[in-house]
Write a structure and sequence with these properties.
Layout: H1 8-11, H2 15-19, E1 32-36, E2 41-44, E3 47-50
Antiparallel strand pairs: 1-2, 2-3
Length: 66
């Protein structure tokens, strides 16, 4: 049986690397304090952001080959 030791970078690409060539997509890491669905805006600790489509990721941890 053959085995190998791979790092996380060798297994999965980062989200930023996947959408890096998409000028109409932004990836932000910030603490959201409010979402205003009526105005299509996200309010964070560092400012307000308007959106056409919103995808929220609450976070995740990796555990490759544990």
């Amino acid at each position: 049986m053959a085995t190998a030791s791979l790092s996380a970078v060798e297994i999965a690409r980062s989200l930023r690397a996947i959408i890096d060539d998409s000028p109409d997509v932004s990836v932000l890491l910030n603490k959201v304090t409010q979402i205003d669905n009526g105005r299509k805006a996200v309010i964070t600790e560092n400012g307000h952001y308007s959106y056409d489509s919103l995808v929220l990721a609450t976070g995740a941890g990796t555990s490759y080959f544990v």
